[in-house]
Amino acid sequence: MTAPPATPPASSAASSPVVTLDRVTRTFGDVVALDDVSLDLHAGQLVGMLGPNGAGKSTLLSLIAGLRKPTSGTVRLMGRDPRDPVARIGLGTTPQETGLPATLRVREVIDFVAGHFPDPMPTAEVMDMFGLGDLARRQTGSLSGGQKRRLAVALSIVGRPRVVLLDEPTTGLDVDARRVLWDAVQAYHAGGAAIVVTSHYLEEIEALAQRVVVVDGGRILADDDLASVLSRVGSRTVRFRLADAAAIADAGVLALLEHAEREGDRWTVVTPEADDLVRSLVAADVPFTGLDVRGATLEEAFVAMTSPAAPNPATTTNGRSAR
Ligand SMILES: Nc1ncnc2c1ncn2[C@@H]1O[C@H](COP(=O)(O)OP(=O)(O)OP(=O)(O)O)[C@@H](O)[C@H]1O
């Protein structure tokens, strides 16, 4: 879709972080939900936050939103305590679960929320961004789950916030609805807002986030640009076509392979030494065709980081092993 970028107010101090967590710990009884976490978020960043269930993601977002206080450490939103209304006016958030007044129409709900902000986006513009135009007169109680979710996320940006927190905004949406929602989020981000999104759809985070924060057990395991996070997984997947299986062994490359499988003449091998493998195959005159070398996916990097005891891919695939 072609929603115009919606511009949040310019930052008065563009270089200072809009969100800061400094050595933040949050416990619930015996449970340490966040353990000594430090994090800065700057204007214009679109951050994907990943972590297994119970990692501490929602707790972290709730501290930034001022819904909870840290047990120790400091949280700042636009340089202030997140519970300060002056800071909160610049925040938009969609938690995992939201309630909508069932008898109000879509347009009325957006107007109602817009009324709480000094310079809200026009309701028609918000509805257009989120593909809600045709539903303007529908009572929210009659919306589908996906339509409700789009409305809930739309409400988070009505007030032109500088910081937007979206906790699993696309869970349960079909592919088209996810695309509409991400187009809208990106259009809003183009105006300079800082956005944090949690999602269990890693390919979605890989496609859209510039910075990736991986949380597990209440700690930050990785906080880097996407390429750096992906580079933490050293292995590459190499695909090619080759009818003569014996040529692989003859080339003396078996020791380079973490895993190999073959379907007919189609080979897929995983190796930490892709360059050496390809050089060796060429040097041995192995008559392969259709060479394709790929880096790790975010999902592979995530599994490698969050499950130290994750099984070797060689033991989890059903293909034929070359070893
Ligand atoms: N209000 C609470 N009372 C007690 N324990 C809590 C509370 N809120 C969170 N926890 C615990 O803190 C830990 C972190 O939970 P949190 O909801 O932040 O994880 P999450 O990463 O958002 O998980 P998910 O992906 O399942 O939403 C979990 O062990 C959870 O059970």
Secondary structure layout:
Elements: E1 19-28, E2 31-41, E3 46-50, H1 57-64, E4 72-77, H2 85-88, E5 91-94, H3 106-114, H4 123-129, H5 145-157, E6 163-167, H6 175-189, E7 194-198, H7 202-208, E8 211-216, E9 219-225, H8 226-231, E10 236-241, H9 246-250, E11 259-263, E12 266-271, H10 274-283, E13 289-294, H11 298-306, H12 313-316, E14 320-321
Parallel strand pairs: 3-7, 3-8, 5-6, 6-7
Antiparallel strand pairs: 1-2, 1-4, 8-9, 10-12, 10-13, 11-12, 11-14
The structure holds adenosine-5'-triphosphate (ATP).
Adenosine-5'-triphosphate binds next to strand 2 and helix 1.
CATH homologous superfamily label of the largest domain: P-loop containing nucleotide triphosphate hydrolases
CATH class of the largest domain: Alpha Beta
- Into which percentage range does the β-strand content fall? 25-35%
Q: Describe the main β-sheet briefly.
A: 6 strands, mixed
Calculate the terminal CA-CA distance, rounded to whole Å: 49 Å
Low-pLDDT stretches are 1-5, 9-14, 310-323
How do the strands of the widest beta sheet line up side by side? Answer: 5-6-7-3-8-9
Give the SSE string.
Answer: EEEHEHEHHHEHEHEEHEHEEHEHHE
* Cα-based radius of gyration, to the nearest Å: 24 Å
CATH fold node name of the largest domain: Rossmann fold
The coarse overall form would be elongated
InterPro entries: AAA+_ATPase (IPR003593), ABC_transporter-like_ATP-bd (IPR003439), ABC_transporter-like_CS (IPR017871), ABC_transporter_ATP-binding (IPR050763), P-loop_NTPase (IPR027417)
Main location: membrane
Membrane topology: Peripheral membrane protein
Protein name: ABC-2 type transport system ATP-binding protein
